[in-house]
Amino acid sequence: MNLNQVTLPVKNMELAVNFYLTLGFTQIVDTPHYARFSCPDGEATFSLSLDSDANSGGAVIYFEHEHLDELVQTLIERGIEFEQMPTEQRYLWTEAIVRDPSGNKVKLYWAGENRLSPPWKVHKTL
Hints:
Elements: E1 5-10, H1 13-23, E2 26-30, E3 34-38, E4 45-50, E5 60-64, H2 68-77, E6 84-88, E7 94-99, E8 105-110
Parallel strand pairs: 1-4, 5-8
Antiparallel strand pairs: 2-3, 3-4, 6-7, 7-8
């Protein structure tokens, strides 16, 4: 099984689309009520769905980038404002936080090997 996509609710499709294009994603579907993007690396996609009642319900979307500091600097130059600059977390990931125009939390991060093999990884034996 493989995760296909995540869909985020947005209040204003035009603002949201421009935000994610600025982050560097490629738009592959464009309708007034739905937009879909592919990630620059790999085959993952995510989408936006117009929802006039959208509010930040606590969901967080993560995008991994090996050269996080350089990416953050590029995005700052493009006008993206960060809620948190790259910061090493106790779970061994370095994360930067932005919010899209609808208030959805977006974490740009680098975890390296700790993403799939943290020191506390569960090892099942039969």
